[in-house]
Amino acid sequence: MIKNYIKTTLRSLLKNRGYSFLNITGLAIGITCASLILLWVQDEMTFNHNFAKRDVLYKVYENQTYEGKVSTFVGTPGPMAKAMKAEIPGIKNAARMTGDGGQLFVLGDKSITEQGNYADAEIFSMLQLPFLEGSGANAFRQLHSVVISKKMARTFFGDADPMGKALKLNNTDDYIVTGVFKDLPENSTYQFQWLAPIQNVDHQQPWMTIWEANWVRTLVELEPNASLAAVNKALSHYIPSKTKPGNTNICFLFGMSDWNLRNNFTDGKMQGGRIQYVKTFSFIAWIILLIACINFMNLSTARSEQRAKEVGVRKVMGAGKGKLIGQFIGEAVIMSFISVLVAVGLIYLAMSSFNNMVQKQLSVDLFQPAHMAYLISISLITGLLAGSYPAFYLSSFNPISVLKNIRIKSGAGSGFIRQGLVVLQFSVSIVLIISTVIIYQQIQHIKNRSLGYDKDNLVYIYLQPKQAGHFPAVYNDLMQSGVVANTALSDDIVLGVGSNSDNYFWDGKDASKNPLISWENVSSQFISTMGMKLAAGHNFDPNPTVDSSNVIINEAFATQMGAAGRVGGIIRDGGKKPYRIIGILNDYLYNDMYGSAAPLLLYNNRPNYGVLSIRLKPGVNLPDALTKAGKIVKADYPGYPFEYHFIDDDFNQLFKTETLTGTLAGVFASLAIFISCLGLFGLAAYTAERRIKEIGIRKVLGATVAGLTGLISKDFLKLVLISCLIAFPVALWGVNKWLQSYQYRVSIHWWVFAVAGITAIVIALATVSFQAIKAALMNPVKSLRSE
Question: What sign for the dihedral angle of Cα 523, 215, 266, 665?
Answer without folding.
Answer: positive
